[in-house]
């Protein structure tokens, strides 16, 4: 500020004039009087001058004016100035809290602007976070457990047999929405989520209630929409009631609601929900409660299943065992279920999903099936399931189902098994066992007795019934499919078929001959019925093994037939009495390779441990060990006039994708019709006049053959009518796998019988079962056979005139062996040391005999060497370690496996 505008010094005295002068000097409008003393500063004063000795109120004003200075004064020094208006106003804050200019409580109360702003910011932040989370979240694939299913097996009539299998063992079968009745969909919508068809997948109010209750530690709440429950069951696979799970469920549900159709969500929910009774999904629930498919449910049944979804423990009308049994009794549950069932139906009427007239029809709770435990695999069902599984996987080139896929579950497998016939076969076996076998009373002879059986449709090959053992949960081996038991003389029809089709070889030509040089035989061809017949090669030379030992074939009881006629016997009569010597020589003349080929063409499956070596004459006597299923199927080829159908147990396989497999009949011509019809005619004579008379069924044509192995270690009867072929096997074998020394045991004395023959217990079971199985079937007769082949005579007629060979032995057969197993020993060798002289009861003898005395024994040789022999064909393996009925690590006798 310029010098001439400086303030003049103030007088010590004053009054109004002094005050005016001070004001006048303070404005700077007048120059400082000359001669006046300068101010204390060369520049304008910014300080506060010492107070004067007088002036009072006016002086105070002057002091204030001096403190404020003029319009162009400098800024006051730090620490100077004062008063309320001594400085500039404070800068305004963005968030005025605590509030400026307010005292007391008002300073801490936020303004409405602040409250509104914070609320908007909070909501915006949440929306931003939610938006980011929604954009980032991906809907995970359905959990494996939500897709895990079991397999459902059906009887031949389409009714359900059992639901089992699959890695998870969960009783679930996923079905598409069009296979779920609309009434079920409407029931869950009305009961659980009325806005399902229009909502976005979540219910904010429901989520809020759940969060609030869980936060305060109150009752937990589940997802309130169908979409949320589907996400919880199928996607998250997490039933835990926690905040983190709820948040995950929320965001995924929103995403699912916008990316999946309502039909997909509804189908997913109904297929993954739990309905109690171990039923996951609506199809399993429909079967568990009403024994019907989901597509066949009515509105009343659907309403009950929708009620059960609230909690099967409290809403299953049958009652449930629980920690609080008083609240889950049948009565208590029925009451709760009825109330909710009725309420759901009423809600459906309100929602327009059900007409009032339809609603009025349902006055009582629908009747439900009693709960079933999965012990349904007991009895024969376990064997049936095993058989069906084996067939499906062993035919994976047709079914497309490997063992791994089968274990994942989800298949509906329709079988050929007839429920009534399975029960009838089991009943027939039990009847014979209970009446004759007593392990407690006769432990040495009646322990470890087992039966196996199979019944096959003669025209199609469909397996209609099996008997696998006493109980699939107790007896591990399926005796219908795997036994290891030799079939004995039931193998002889294949020898006859080969001889009729190909004929005996020309002894003047080489061993390998075509059919054009052979002589097909007729059933009236003549062979030797001599006991201890010295077996020859086709060219007439004596057969010997590599050690030079000859073969003498014994008959039952060392019996010879027609000694007055040089032992001449027709093949028809030889089959009737099961004469071993005739069929062993016939097999040699035809060629054992042709015999084996005939058995394979008939349906016996080649494979490890099935066929014995065909290098030994005993091959024709049944040293092989095919299963009961395969024997029944092979005999069915004769019943079907030479057309062979492989035995099968599965007609159709379905999954959620539709039909995966449909069985188609594939017949093959195994034998010319005349050959098959002639074999049938010969076997019919066995039942009518021979060893199989105990299998006669009055009024029906029956053909069959008995078989009993050497040492009485197994007994068979295989027979058929024009409609059905059935095989029954009996043997003794220890079930205890820890017994490393187990083997087939002799059956002398078993069932309080001297010995067991194919015509005894096996034929008795066969007849009883077939009588029941065919009680409603029409009577059919076998076709009349045409004459084939020629009468080949391998035995010369005696020089003196003799009568024609009769249809019966000249001497009645001797009584079947009665000696105890301990006394069993091969007879002494004949004078020719190298000759084989195996006795009829010598199981260790290679050729053995066919023990078929009165009462029907039929004891063919084992496969071990006779006296003097050091080598021979290997014995078929026994069930157990290294055996097809064991762990599956070794060869398999099963009919269904390669």
Descriptive labels:
898 residues; alpha/beta; six-stranded mixed beta sheet; five-stranded mixed beta sheet; 32% helix; 10% strand
What is the beta-strand fraction? 5-15%
Separation, N- and C-terminal Cα atoms: 122 Å
Query: From the alpha-carbon coordinates, what is the Rg to the nearest angstrom?
Result: 51 Å
**What is the topology, as strand order, of the major beta sheet?**
7-6-18-17-16-21
- Helix/sheet category: alpha/beta
User: What is the makeup of the main sheet?
Assistant: 6 strands, mixed
Average pLDDT reading: 79
Regarding quaternary structure, how should these chains be classified? single chain
Low confidence ranges: 1-5, 26-54, 69-84, 219-223, 806-898
Number of helices: 26
Shape: elongated
Percent helix among the residues? 25-40%
DSSP strand tally: 21
Condensed summary:
The protein contains 26 helices and 21 strands. The protein is an alpha/beta fold and 898 residues long.
Task: Summarize the structure in words.
Helices cover 32% and strands 10% of the residues. With 898 residues, it is of the alpha/beta class. The chain is elongated, with a radius of gyration of 51 Å.
Describe the secondary-structure layout.
Layout: H1 16-27, H2 56-68, H3 112-136, H4 144-147, E1 151-154, E2 160-164, E3 171-172, H5 182-192, H6 204-215, H7 226-236, H8 243-259, H9 262-272, E4 279-280, H10 282-290, H11 299-308, H12 312-315, H13 330-350, H14 356-359, H15 381-394, H16 396-399, H17 403-408, E5 412-415, H18 419-436, H19 443-446, E6 449-457, E7 463-467, H20 492-501, E8 526-528, E9 533-534, E10 550-555, E11 568-570, H21 571-576, H22 580-590, H23 592-602, H24 628-639, E12 643-644, E13 650-655, E14 658-662, E15 668-669, H25 673-689, E16 703-709, E17 714-720, E18 724-732, H26 761-773, E19 835-836, E20 849-850, E21 859-860
Parallel strand pairs: 1-5, 3-4, 10-19, 10-20, 16-21
Antiparallel strand pairs: 1-2, 5-13, 6-7, 6-18, 8-11, 9-10, 12-15, 13-14, 16-17, 17-18
Helix pairs in contact: 1-2, 5-11, 5-13, 7-8, 7-9, 11-13, 18-26, 20-22, 20-23, 20-25, 22-23, 23-24
